[in-house]
Write a structure and sequence with these properties.
- By secondary structure, the protein is of the alpha+beta class.
- About 25% of the residues lie in helices and about 35% in strands.
- It has one domain.
- It has helices at about 1-10, 15-30, 110-120; strands at about 35-40, 45-55, 60-65, 80-85, 90, 95, 100-110, 135-140.
- β2 (about 45-55) and β3 form a beta hairpin.
- The longest helix is centred in the first third of the chain and has 15 residues, at about 15-30.
């Protein structure tokens, strides 16, 4: 009877290393959200957003990735041409200029002044919020598939 229980547990209990790897692969495929894409001179320029910003208080990373002709279409393997972090984003604000040389979008950055003021005042758990003001961040669309 014990042998049967052990055998059932072996088959029913997932292998933790494989489960982690499979979960990570699935997560990596779905982490990126394409908020804008355009075709320019045979290249597909994509503006992607994912969690994991690299600046304190700015949890989103916005990236310009480019799929050049003859290259893989796998979103994770596309080269990052430019990136920035933001506290809050509005994907509906992504616009291309008339010359088709730049993309711009409105974002909110973290209100670091208020955060550091809280720390200066001795607050043990300062609260980090997004700034009320929006700023415009830009991506250049020049030299997408060749070196500048």
């Amino acid at each position: 009877m014990n042998f049967l229980k052990i055998t059932l547990l072996f088959f029913l209990y997932p292998n933790s290393s494989n489960a982690h790897e499979e979960g990570y692969e699935l997560k990596a495929k779905h982490d990126y959200r394409v908020v804008y894409q355009t075709l320019l001179e045979g290249a597909v320029a994509k503006v992607l957003v994912h969690e994991g910003g690299h600046v304190v208080g700015q949890p989103f990373q916005v990236e310009l990735r480019v799929q050049c002709p003859g290259r893989s279409a796998d979103i994770v393997s596309l080269p990052v041409k430019d990136s920035f972090s933001a506290c809050d984003i509005d994907p509906s604000t992504v616009k291309m200029n008339n010359q088709k040389t730049a993309l711009a979008m409105k974002v909110k950055l973290a209100d670091l002044k208020t955060y550091y003021d809280q720390i200066s005042n001795g607050q043990k758990e300062p609260e980090l919020k997004c700034s009320e003001k929006t700023v415009i961040k830009k991506f250049s669309l020049r030299n997408l598939c060749n070196q500048p």
